[in-house]
Write a structure and sequence with these properties.
Layout lengths: L1 H13 L5 H19 L10 H24 L4 H30 L4 H12 L3 H8 L16 H22 L5 H22 L16 E4 L2 E4 H7 L5 H13 L2 H4 L8 H21 L3 E3 L5 E3 L1 H4 L2 H17 L5 H5 L2 H8 L1 H16 L8 H27 L3 H9 L6 H27 L6 H8 L7 H5 L26 E8 L1 H5 L1 H6 L3 E4 L5 H14 L2 E8 L8 H10 L5 E5 L8 H9 L1 H4 L3 E4 L1 H4 L17 H14 L6
Helix pairs in contact: 1-3, 2-3, 2-14, 2-16, 2-17, 3-7, 3-10, 3-14, 4-5, 4-7, 4-17, 4-18, 4-20, 5-6, 5-20, 6-7, 8-10, 10-14, 12-14, 17-18, 25-26
Length: about 650
């Protein structure tokens, strides 16, 4: 009887109870993510809620695998993967079918570009697809309703390989598990160290050409370091590994039989410290952030320890939740948080495409009333998915529901007829949507299309001038003889325009007026000032200058002054205010509007105001870039500000 008793005791210890506090923690995590996705200014580090999910997944999945092996002597990979499929796939496929239907009706121009995201999402490879496409969280302007599936890709890849790894480990004997837990923690710290080392420390531009240090070249592909570090499965394995390590040494029923049995109250202060640390991190960190006038940089608070600290803070909370003598589990497991946590998967799955349907493009912050509408729709859809799709399939009740519906005599005919009509529509609409998706042409988003159209109408003046300035063939930099240059006559521009992506969109219309346009995406105000200083040093002259900068970041008074001093000899300088929902726009515009009082040659074209008077398709969905009618209007207003008349 002894072996039987011992086996029974082991099985009792390894049981995995329902921990309502974990659902409460899931609720806090999904709320943080949703707020961040609505408007990152409201909660800059809300995306760390995903890391909390990773730690919880690592903890629960590992604990379930260990429990199954102790109970049965093995781990059934088939049963494990079927359980995961029943839990995850129904809601995912429902969301994607609904999304394809919506896109085929309301966002048809985006259908072609959605196709790759749908395939990647179905195969749970969204994170790698986004890395390859350069479509991570920092990419803007696209209608990207499946971008949030990167995290599900990481988790599903974990679910695919982790039971195999644990099965191999468990077959070596349970005595080695504490040492294995130490190895998991050690690997997590190594990964965190590599991420810290690989984080790009300089400015992050929009291409390899502008900031090569922020990208890796693989063949002819230019991959963003930030995207790879943030989205790839190995670099995001820290939370999963930490959760797995805790599962091995901190199982709920085992705690009640060991020396920790009466230490439950000591766990509550640890959980409070974990919550405080999480609150600090979600309010502090960013993925990328502006560094003064130097543009976007990776946030070291995130990549140099922030992700690891998030995992550690989550462990502190889980440790208390798992101890049934601690108050933390009961507090976090209150009915409100528990209900939200039980539906957290659906809330996460549906909120992002609903938000995208409201704003049409990524990178646009939702207004408070849009957020409220989006949340209401998300809650209704997620609740319907939970009640009528997820639970029936998870609990294997769907087949019984269908059988009961089809049973009955003549009195059930009307019910069956209604059901048949609903099923017909439910099949025909998705078929129409899928056919539309498969046959749609892939088109760039409206902002990118505008910028692409401007490529042939812009020039890089410094690059164009460089070939005319070279060393004499008979001299070198090391020679003591004075270096001479070939004959160089500085050019004269009747009208020269310098700007960022807003101006680039209107470059063809400006070029038709005879304006020389130097406009590129992601240009900062400080870069513009440097260009004017170099042109001054080269002796380039101009009759008139047009400047539209400040969309992408703050401009200091020093930058504006150095810019104005470099073009003080230009008879007429037209500088446009910015129109963008950005934290720095108002301050930039205030400084720009004050320039004429100090520089008599400056005329301010108040684009923030003038743009609102444009009629027709003037601005894209982000309210910043120019649409078809806006490009012509923009060029005409600049021409008028220059004192010219359009013939």
């Amino acid at each position: 009887m002894a072996p039987t008793t011992e086996t029974s005791r082991s099985q009792q210890i390894s049981r995995v109870p329902y921990l309502p506090g974990l659902d409460g923690l899931r609720a806090l995590a999904v709320i943080a993510v949703i707020i961040y996705h609505a408007n990152s200014a409201w909660l800059p580090g809300g995306f760390l809620g995903v890391e909390v999910f990773f730690v919880i997944s690592g903890y629960l999945i590992t604990m379930l695998l260990v429990a199954e092996e102790e109970r049965t002597g093995t781990v059934s990979l088939r049963d494990f993967w079927l359980r995961r499929a029943r839990r995850l796939l129904p809601a995912l496929f429902t969301m994607m079918v609904l999304l394809i239907m919506w896109t085929s009706v309301r966002e048809r121009d985006s259908l072609g570009s959605l196709r790759g995201d749908v395939v990647a999402g179905t195969l749970y490879g969204s994170n790698w697809f986004q890395v390859w496409q350069g479509a991570g969280y920092t990419a803007a302007n696209d209608f990207a309703p499946l971008r949030h599936l990167w995290s599900l890709g990481v988790e599903e890849q974990f679910y695919l390989v982790w039971p195999v790894i644990m099965l191999i480990i468990l077959r070596r004997g349970r005595d080695s598990l504490p040492r294995v837990a130490t190895w998991f923690v050690g690997i997590a710290f190594v990964i965190a160290g590599l991420v810290a080392i690989l984080m790009p420390s300089g400015r992050i531009g929009d291409s390899c050409a502008s900031t090569p240090s922020a990208f890796w070249n693989i063949g002819d592909r230019c991959l963003s370091k930030i995207d790879l570090l943030y989205l790839s499965t190995p670099t995001r394995a820290t939370g999963l590994l930490l959760g797995a390590a805790l599962a091995i040494v901190w199982r709920p029923y085992a705690l009640l039989r060991g020396p920790m049995k009466r230490k439950g109250k000591l766990m509550d202060p640890i959980a409070v410290l974990g919550l405080i640390l999480l609150a600090f991190l979600v309010s502090k960190v960013h993925i990328v952030h502006l560094v003064g006038e130097d543009g976007l940089h990776a946030d070291p608070w995130l990549f140099r320890g922030g992700l690891l600290l998030t995992g550690v803070a989550t462990l502190m909370i889980i440790a208390a939740v798992a101890h049934q003598k601690a108050l933390t589990g009961r507090i976090l497991g209150n009915v409100v948080l528990r209900v939200i946590g039980e539906r957290s998967y659906g809330l996460y799955l549906y909120h992002w495409p609903i938000f995208q349907a409201i704003r049409h493009e990524t990178g646009i912050a939702l207004k408070p009333h849009e957020f409220v509408v989006g949340i209401l729709i998300t809650v209704l859809v997620a609740e319907g998915s939970y009640r009528f799709i997820e639970l029936p399939i998870r609990e294997k009740r769907l087949r019984e529901s269908l059988r009961s519906l089809l049973r009955g005599g003549p009195q059930a005919m009307q019910r069956r007829s209604s059901f048949a009509a609903i099923m017909a529509c439910s099949l025909l609409l998705p078929i129409f949507a899928v056919v539309s998706l498969a046959t749609a042409d892939e088109r760039p988003n409206e902002v990118q299309a505008s910028l692409d159209a401007g490529d042939d109408a812009v020039t890089d003046v410094l690059d164009d001038l460089t070939p005319d300035i070279s060393l004499s063939p008979s001299t070198s930099l090391a020679a003591e003889v004075p270096v001479t240059t070939t004959s160089f006559v500085p050019p004269h521009y009747p009208v020269f325009a310098l700007g960022d992506s807003v101006m680039k969109g209107a470059a063809p219309a400006l070029a038709e007026l005879g304006i020389v346009v130097d406009a590129v995406q992601d240009r900062q105000g400080k870069m513009g000032a440097d260009i004017f200083i170099q042109l001054q040093d080269l002796g380039v002259t101009m009759d008139a200058v047009v400047i539209h900068l400040g969309t992408n970041g703050p401009m200091s008074q020093k930058t504006l002054d150095s810019m104005m001093e470099a073009i003080a000899g230009v008879p007429r300088v037209v500088i446009l205010t910015g129109k963008a929902n950005r934290g720095w726009t108002e301050k930039n515009n205030k400084k720009i509007r004050a320039l004429p009082s100090a520089y008599p040659n400056v005329v301010v074209l108040d684009w923030e105001l003038v743009a609102t008077l444009c009629e027709g398709r003037c601005l894209t969905a982000d309210g910043i870039h120019l649409d078809r009618d806006g490009r012509k209007y923009y060029a005409a207003e600049i021409w008028k500000a220059l004192g010219r008349e359009i013939l």
